[in-house]
Specification:
This protein has helices at residues 2-13, 15-21, and strands spanning 25-27, 29-37, 43-51, 61-66, 71-77, 82-85, 91-99, 108-110, 113-114, 118-122, 127-132, 143-150, 159-164, 167-174, 180-185, 191-199, 208-209, 213-217. By secondary structure, it is mainly beta.
C-alpha cells in the first residue's frame, strides 16, 4: 500500500513538470525533386526541403529512390541534397525523394515528407567514330570525313560537328537515315591533323565524342612496290 500511495503523491506533486515534458511542436515539411545534367552528361537529382512556414529545415537525410526498379539510388544530408547518377539503364525512370525528418531539435520535431514522382528518360550513350576517305592524303587533296553514330536501339537523329584540334571544320552537319554525317574539304592544313567528330545528341541519346583520327596531309605516300627495295 505504501508503494501505491507514493506513486500517486509523485504524480500529483508534479503535474506541471509532466505536462511540460509532453509539449512538442511538430513542424510539417514539403519536399520537391528536380533533375539536371552536368558537364559530363550525368543526371543530377536535387531535392528541396522546406518547412511549412517556408524556411529551411535544420537537419535530416534525403533518400533518392528509383521506383521503376525499386532501387535506393543514394542519400544526402538535407544541407546538400543532391546526388549524381551515371549507371542507370537508359529508358524511362520514376524518381522520388524522401526526407527522413528529425527529432534532434526537440521540443521541435521536423516531420518527414516525400516528393511527387519525377518521370525522366535516361538517354543512351552512343558510340561515335570518324573516318577519312583518304589517309594520308596529298596537300590540297579533296577528303571526305564521315562520322558514324551507333546506338543500341532505334535510329539516332541530330547533328555532328567536325574539328581539327580545337578548330571547327564544319558545324551541325545533320545525320542521314543511316546515322552518318559527312563533310568534304580540300582545306586541311599540311601536317598531322587531329580530327574528331562530336555528336550533339537528341531526345534519346546524349552528346558523345569520337576517338581522335590522325589524318596525314602532305605526307609522301609509300608505294607498295617500294617496300623491301634495298637499292
Amino acid at each position: 500500500m505504501n508503494g501505491f500511495h507514493l506513486i500517486v503523491i509523485i504524480a500529483l506533486a508534479c503535474p506541471t513538470a509532466a505536462s511540460a515534458q509532453s509539449i512538442v511542436e511538430s513542424e510539417l515539411t514539403r519536399t520537391t525533386l528536380t533533375s539536371s545534367v552536368d558537364a559530363a552528361g550525368h543526371t543530377v537529382l536535387t531535392a528541396s526541403v522546406t518547412a511549412a512556414h517556408g524556411g529551411g529545415v535544420p537537419g535530416g537525410i534525403v533518400r533518392f529512390i528509383d521506383e521503376t526498379t525499386l532501387l535506393l539510388l543514394g542519400w544526402a544530408d538535407v544541407s546538400q541534397p543532391s546526388i549524381v547518377i551515371d549507371h542507370l539503364p537508359d529508358g524511362q525512370h520514376r524518381f522520388r525523394a524522401a526526407y527522413s525528418g528529425t527529432a534532434n531539435f526537440l521540443p521541435v520535431m521536423i516531420q518527414p515528407s516525400q516528393s511527387g514522382l519525377l518521370i525522366q528518360t535516361i538517354r543512351a550513350v552512343p558510340n561515335v567514330s570518324v573516318s577519312s576517305s583518304e589517309n594520308p592524303c596529298a596537300s590540297g587533296a579533296v577528303v571526305t570525313l564521315t562520322a558514324a553514330i551507333a546506338v543500341r536501339d532505334g535510329m539516332p537523329t541530330g547533328a555532328v560537328t567536325f574539328r581539327d584540334g580545337e578548330r571547327v571544320l564544319a558545324a551541325h552537319i545533320g545525320l542521314d537515315r543511316a546515322g552518318t554525317a559527312s563533310f568534304t574539304t580540300s582545306a586541311l592544313a599540311d601536317g598531322s591533323r587531329v580530327i574528331t567528330a562530336e555528336y550533339e545528341g537528341d531526345a534519346n541519346h546524349v552528346r558523345a565524342l569520337s576517338p581522335q583520327l590522325m589524318q596525314g596531309v602532305g605526307t609522301p605516300l609509300v608505294q607498295s612496290s617500294q617496300l623491301g627495295n634495298t637499292d
